[in-house]
Amino acid sequence: MTALSRLAKRWGLQTSSFLFFVSAGIVVVFAALTIAFVEPMGNAFGAASTWLLTNLGWFYIFGVSVFLLFLIYLAISRWGRVRLSEEDEGPEHSDKAWFAMLFAAGIGTILMFWAVAEPVNHFANPPRAGVEPSSIEAAREAMGFTLYHFGLHTWTIFTLPGLAFAYFIHKRRLPPRVSSMFQPFLGEKIHGPIGRAIDVVAIVGTVLGVAVSIGLGTLQINAGLSELLGISESAGAQIIIIAVVTGVAILSVAAGLNRGIKVLSNINILVAIGLLLFVLITGPTLVMIKGTVESAGTYLFMLPDLMFWNDTFHDTGWQGSWTVFYWAWTITWSPFVGIFIAKISKGRTIRQFITGVLGLPTLFTIVWFGIFGMGVFDIEMNGDGGLVERVVDQGDIPGAMFEFLTNFPLATLTSFVGIVLVAVFFITSMDSAGLVLDTMTNGHEDPAPTKQRVFWTFSVGLVAAALLIASGDEGLSVLQDFITVVGLPFFVLGFLMMGNMLRALKEDAGELPPLQTRRWLRVLPPEEWMRRRRAGTAEDAVMVPEPVAGTEPEYTDDPFDLSSDPHNDDTEHSEKSAKE
Predict the structure, then answer these.
(1) pLDDT of 9-22, one tens digit each?
(2) Mapped to the 3 state alphabet, what secondary structure does 66-114 carry?
(3) Per residue in 292-325, pLDDT tens?
(4) What is the DSSP letter of 314?
(5) Mind telling me which residue stretches traverse the membrane in this protein (predicted)?
(6) What residues does 547 pair with on adjacent strands?
(7) Ramachandran region of residue 170, left (φ > 0), alpha (ψ -120 to 50) or beta?
C-alpha cells in the first residue's frame, strides 16, 4: 500500500488515491500561486494566449468543424443503430427530463450571459469587413455569428466526448474516465502512467474550465445586484457571491442527482422559458417571431462559410477574442459535461444521442437568441437605444442583460429573476461538476463518500475566486487569456478520441451487418478492484478490459460479405436459389 493509499484510507476516502491527491494538489497550488503572484500569472497567461491566437487559432476553428462532420457521419452511417447499453435497454430518463438536465449543465449560464451582449457587440462592430455598423446587414450578420457560436458547434464540443463516454462506459463497461476512451489503442495501459496522465489533465482542466464560467456568472450577478441594490462591483462582493453560491451547490451535490441536480435543472429551465415568453409577449412580438425565423435561415446560409473562416486576409484579431475563446472555453467543459450527458443517456442509440444532443439544444438556442437579439435591434433601431453605449462603448458586458430588461415592463422584477436564473444555472453547473469529478477520480459510479463530491465542488469555487482576484479590473480579458491556453490539450485529445471511437465500433461489430456487438465485463480501476476483492464484493468485475466469452463477432475483410453471418435469414434462401 502506497503512502497516498494510506492517507486516503485514514481520511475515509474511497477513490483512486493517486488521481485524487495529484489533481487536488495541482488545483490547490494553482489557486495559491494565482492569488500570491497576481501580476506574473496574468502576464504569463497573456503571453501564452497571444502566441496561441497568432499561430494556432486556426487549429481551434478547424478542430470543432471536423468534430461536427464526424458526428454527422456516425449518425447517418450504420453505426447510428448501435445502442449505448450492454443489452437492448431503453432510456432511463424521459426526453423532457433528459433535455432539461443536459441543457442546464451544459450551456444555461452562457445563454444568460451572452443573450444580449453578443448580438449588440456584433451589431455595433461587425466581424467582417465591408459591413456598415448598426445597419440592417450588421443585424443579420450579428445573428449569424451569434448562432454559429452557440448552435451546432458548441454542442458538437459536448456531443463528441459525451458519445465516447457513453459507448465505453455503457457498452464496454469501462471506468468513467477520459483514459477509457483510449482503450482500443492503450488496452490495459489505461490504468498505467499514460492513462493516469490523461485523467489528471482532464480533471484539472475541467476544474479550471468550470471555474471560468463561475467567474463570468459572478460578474453578471454582481452587475445585476449593482443595478438593483447599488452593491459595488468589486472583488470583495464577487468573493461573497461565489461563497454563497458554492455553499448552495455543495448542499445540492450532497443531495445527489435525482433529488438535487435534476430538480434544480427542471425548475430553472421552466423559469428561463417563462422569462423568454415574458420578453416575447411584452416586446415587439411580431418582429421577434419573424426575426427568429429569418435568423435561422441566416445561420444555415452562413454556416458552411463560417465553419472554416479564419479571417485570413484582413486578420483583425476578432476571432481570437470571440470564436477561439468560445471553443477553448467550451472544450474545457467537455469531460465534465460529456460524462454527465453519458450518464443520463444510457439506452439511447448513437443516432438518437447525436440528433438529440445536437438538435434539441440548438433549436432552443435559435429561439432564445432570436427573441433577445431581435429585441436588441428593435431597441437600437426603433427605440431609445442605450445598449451599444453601455455594452460596447463602456465595455459592461456583464450588465448587458439588465440594461436590456429596463426597456420592458416590471424591470426590477425581471432583473431579479435574471439574477436568480444565473445563480441557479451555475449552481447546477457546479454541483454537476462536483459529481462528475468525483466519478472520474473514483473510476466507478457506485455510491462514494459525500465528502469527496463536496471537495470537488468547493475546489471549483476556490479556483473561480482566485481567478477573479487575479483578473482585477480586466475581468473578462484575463479569463479569456487563461482559458485559451487551457483548452489546447483538449483539442488534441478530441482528434484521438475520434480514432478510438471508430476502432471500437469496428472491433465490437466485426464489420458485419446486422450489428450484433460483443458484450464486455465490467472494468474497475486496480485499487477499487483490490478493495472490493478483499471485501468479497468484486463479483464479475475485472481489472483488464475483457469481453464476455462467446460474444465475440465473426470478422471478415469484406464488410458486405454476408455468407458467414449466422443471423442473416436470406443466406439459406440465396444458396437454394443458386442451386436451382
Answers:
(1) 888 888 888 999 99
(2) HHHHHHHHHHHCHHHHCECCCCCCCCCCCHHHHHHHHHHHHCHHHHHHH
(3) 999 999 999 999 999 999 888 887 888 888 898 8
(4) T
(5) 18-38, 58-76, 97-117, 150-169, 200-223, 235-257, 269-289, 324-342, 354-377, 408-427, 454-472, 478-498
(6) 520
(7) alpha
